[in-house]
Amino acid sequence: MKQKIGLLVMAYGTPEKEADLMPYYTSIRRGYAPTEEEVAVLKRRYEAIGGLSPLADITRGQAERLVKQLNESSNDIEYELFVGHKHMAPFIEDAVSSMHEAGITEAVAIVMAPYFSMFATASYFERAKRRAARYGLMISEVTAWNEEPEFLAYWCKALQETLDVVKDKQVGVIFTAHSLPYHVIHMGDTYPQVVEATAHHIAEQVGLTQYSMAWQSAGVRGDWLTPDVAEVTRQVANSVEAIVYVPIGFVCDHLEILYDNDIACKALCDELQVMYERVPMPNTDETFVKAMAQAVRRVPIKDEVTE
After folding, report:
1. Which residues are annotated as a binding site for Fe(2+)?
2. Is residue 118 part of a domain?
3. Domain count, the chain
4. Could you give the C-alpha distances from 282 to 50, 72, 90, 118, 164, in angstroms and in order?
5. Is residue 84 part of a domain?
6. Residues contacting residue 181 through CB under 8 Å, at least 6 positions apart
7. Rounded to an integer, what distance in angstroms lies between the CA atom of residue 58 and that of residue 44?
8. Do residues 189 and 274 share a domain?
9. What is the pLDDT of residues 203-236, one digit of tens each?
10. Residues annotated as binding site?
11. How much is the pLDDT for 305?
12. Cα–Cα distance between 49 and 72 in angstroms, integer?
């Protein structure tokens, strides 16, 4: 009989209907309700990408493929999937409670964000373990998975294929990831250095000798990590005919990609008269999902089979 282990997949969460906008925005603002104007701005951005974000559906697809890969390669472990969100129901705590109700006593948790951050990903694990402590449920962490060979392989292949599209032009490459508040960086969060090291590795693998790193999708309050993607775009556009954006800080198509990149960055490229290209997001790509599966397998679990 196979040992049953919980697989807790944690993600940021997104509104799935218009009525979710206010509670979602209130959650990301740590309980402070947004103004009507702020909600209207968010609503317009969703409308610009064709309605609400595809994030929820893609996250479910990634999680389902992940548990499928894991169970197909294990002779002794059966993973049972539970999905919890930081800012939308079902919340992380709901997923942990569901594990307990299903009789799960041990689980592995992974965040749909490949880089560890004290500000970002650590809070997911803290919330999960706080609820798990009620039940004596043991949760092991996949703290990061950006160094998995398949993670790097996906981005190298996707970038090379995109560069082939613009091979007849003088091209600038901008790697991007989500910005963080400066006060978090001053507290010692290593997220920027890890992202930059990953960008360097990918660039090296595809033979790039010149590229830029930029931060995107910053919040509207306080000081955030720079240089911002708009600033870098203006600099790079001075000497190229096309710009290829590589959003290595994200794992799927959602608002930050479909609006902040495909609408805002493209509009800026149009203004600067340079061609806009973006590397396709991993979404449910098999190689990319395998990166997560390998990271989960590396967590010590009795009798687990590895490839």
Report:
1. 178, 256
2. yes
3. 2
4. 20, 21, 24, 24, 18
5. yes
6. 119, 219, 222, 223, 224, 225
7. 22
8. yes
9. 999 999 999 999 999 988 889 999 999 999 999 9
10. 12, 29, 45-46, 53, 124, 178, 256
11. 39
12. 36
> Residue ranges for the binding site for Fe-coproporphyrin III?
12, 29, 45-46, 53, 124
The answer to whether position 258 is within a domain reads: yes
Mean pLDDT of 229-256: 98
CATH code, 84 = 3.40.50.1400
Q: Are residues 175 and 97 in contact, defined by beta-carbon separation less than 8 angstroms?
A: no
pLDDT at residue 142 tops 80: yes
* Residue 304 falls inside a structural domain: no
Buried b vs exposed e over 217-231: b needs ≥16 C-beta within 10 Å? bbeeeeebbeebbee
- Report yes or no: 28 and 87 within 8 Å, Cβ to Cβ: yes
Is pLDDT at 84 greater than 80 in this prediction?
Answer: yes
165 lies in which domain range? 149-278
pLDDT at 306 exceeding the cut of 50? no
| CB-CB neighbours of 200 under 10 Å | 14
Full-model pTM: 0.95
Same domain, 249 and 135: no
- Residues 187, 208, single domain; the answer is yes
E-state strands within the chain: 3-11, 77-85, 106-111, 138-142, 171-178, 212-216, 242-246, 275-278
Same domain, 159 and 133: no
Mean pLDDT calculated for residue range 14-34 = 91
Question: How much of the chain is in helix, strand and coil states, percent to nearest 5?
Answer: 45, 20, 35
